[in-house]
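1st attempt posting a full record on here, be nice pls
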Amino acid sequence: MTEATLTKNEPIRTADGTLLKVSLRRALRRDKIKSLLLVTPLFLFIGVTFLLPIGDMLWRGVEDPIVSEYLPKTVEQLERWDIESEELPPESVYAALVEDIKIGAEDRVITRVGKRLNYELPGMSSLFRKSQRRIPTIDEGPYKDAVIKVDKRWGQIQTWQLIKSFSPTLTASYFWAAMDLQVAPDGSIGLQDEKKRIYIKLFVRTLYLSGLITLMTLILGYPVAYLLATLPLRTSNMLLMLVLLPFWTSLLVRTTSWIALLQREGVLNDLLVSLNIIDTDNRLAMIHNATGTIIAMTHILLPFMILPLYSVMKTIPPSYMRAAISMGAHPIEAFVKVYAPNTIPGIGAGGILVFILAIGYYITPALVGGTSGTFISNFIAYHVSVSLNWGLAAALGLILLGLVLVLYLLYDKIVGIDNMKLGWHDEV
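the predicted structure (as tokens):
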């Protein structure tokens, strides 16, 4: 066998004698580890600031351990009682209730059960407050008669049905409430009273006003972006500074400025009266309603529409319009058929950015929206900070997140997320 044949059949090695394949695998592994280490801080940041809060919100939306935690013995005894029974629970359940309430009253936590159940059936909070004071004085049986003597509601079937219905540690009741549905004491689900059906209307209002605000920013922002893209660079940069100027002013200041402008005795109404457009007795109501929300939020979110449009328009060669006009097209026709279609990626980027920002806005609708211009986010904040019904707040937040994801998928299906650009384009 010749030396050439040996050389041909022998595996290729590196200078240190390591097989080339092994050396390449090691190098690729080192590169992957380095890349992973570089992106690890970003993954940790996203996990801590985004995934964990969403996970916690999801858990709070279904977590309901209060009844089972503070009435453990009662819940255990109720397992043997049929929720559809027309008879009250047996003596053993009342005995367990007395024991649980004695322990809970000593630790001053039993009223939390009443507060939780009061979301489902008004009056439960007062029942547990009263029971916390009186039931610990019961020393011996029969407990059933003694407990009913404390409050006759302990002798009502629906009280026990409610306790058993909310005994599990996981519940969907918050989501039912967020959709204007109610879990009855016997566990059945039905519509809330008409006066209490507010959340579906709020979701519809939030989507409608957010869409209208997005449309208004597009109508107002498109000409401005076109002007910025077609003017000489020095002039456009100066005007661009005016577009960015609101970012240097506090959101609260901008919102309160609109209150001063739009109120009945405000600047705008005074101007209209002085011009004899309206009289003093017929001043326009432009604040603390949906009109105020639309005006203020359109102004606040307008830069978020202008900037994506401008960055896309800047990449459109002026020769496109000149070529269309030179071939006989009217300037308006050339703009509609040639220029405008090239701006669709910017419209998509600005539209989805403004819409998602608008749908979660809180401060501006709270200050200028009144009763007809508030968003669902205002009620989420109310349940977090005032009513302390965090489960319902979490359910509302998750439904809102789900709506945003559905709209995003629809946008991707109709327009295509790949068509959304912020100014960059593929090199040919």
